[in-house]
Amino acid sequence: EVQLVESGGGLVQPGGSLRLSCAGSGFTFSTYGMNWVRQAPGKGLEWVSYISSTATTMYYADSVKGRFTIFRDDAKNSLYLQMNSLRAEDTALYYCARQVFFDNDYWGQGTLVTVSS
Amino acid sequence: NFMLTQPHSVSESPGKTVTISCTRSSGSIANNYVQWYQQRPGSSPTTVIYEDNQRPSGVPDRFSGSIDGSSNSASLTISGLKTEDEADYYCQSYDSSSYVFGTGTKVTVL
Questions:
Q1: Is the separation of the CB atoms in A30 and A74 below 8 Å?
Q2: What is the mean pLDDT of residues B2-6?
Q3: Which residues of A touch B98 (CB under 8 A)?
Q4: According to the model, what pLDDT value does residue B65 have?
Q5: For chains A and B, what is the number of CB pairs under 8 angstroms?
Q6: Would you state the pLDDT for residue B102?
Q7: Handedness of CA B52, B58, B61, B63 (dihedral sign)
């Protein structure tokens, strides 16, 4: 069974940093591109970042470019999102999702990030 | 970058049909596949349509997707509406270096 489990969320002050993790199981992690998608409380889905299966291609939403870094460790079947210079508007539930062609076919349950003083 | 605009909400009675539109602001809707996701309250999104009109296994054939180049939009149609279809629905597409989700549509089954 495919599973994605996010962790690392929490309360952080504006300007602070946080690293999110996503542990994959039940599939060959290294052969899939992966995405981070977030959802602010009561709001819609917002794509954040993508990394290819070979980690040679990364894309970022304009809202996080230069502040967030996506990377992966296939030996640990894990995806990460390093978030720096956090702002109040980064407050959201962060999902990781597995990508098959252009579809996100499996999603985790999300980890909540709250940016507040 | 482009935007995908959806109606904020639609409502219909059980057994009826609803259609949700997703209009692309720039670039041709036909050039990049459109996916549709269902998100029930408190749950993660799940795919109901991928690659414009393909249904994942387990998704009933009451769900269908289409593309209209003349209006530069995609549509999700849910026929034979059931109470379990009440949820938020998001379209999603992409361009050369970004992915975009639609604004989302709340479907209410009266």
A1: yes
A2: 97
A3: 47, 59, 61
A4: 98
A5: 58
A6: 98
A7: negative
Q: Which residues pair with A49 in a beta bridge?
A: A36, A60
Residues 57-86 of B with CB under 8 A from A: none
A102 vs B90, B94, B97: nearest CB: B94
End-to-end CA gap in chain B: 36
Give yes or no for residue B84 having a pLDDT over 90: yes
Residues 6+ apart with CB under 8 A from B21: B6, B7, B71, B73, B74, B75
What is the pLDDT at residue B19?
98
Residues of chain A found within 8 Å of residue B46, distances taken between Cβ atoms: 107
Rounded CA Rg of chain A: 13
Quickly tell me which residue has 């949700």 as its tokens.
B20
- Across all residues in chain A, what is the average pLDDT? 97
Q: Is B44 on the interface with A (CB under 8 A)?
A: yes
CB of A108 within 8 Å of any CB in chain B?
Answer: yes
Decide if B99 and A47 are in contact by the 8 Å CB cutoff. yes
Tell me what the pLDDT averaged over chain B comes to.
96
State the pLDDT confidence band at B1, using cuts at 50, 70 and 90. confident
Which structure tokens are listed for B109? 């089954």
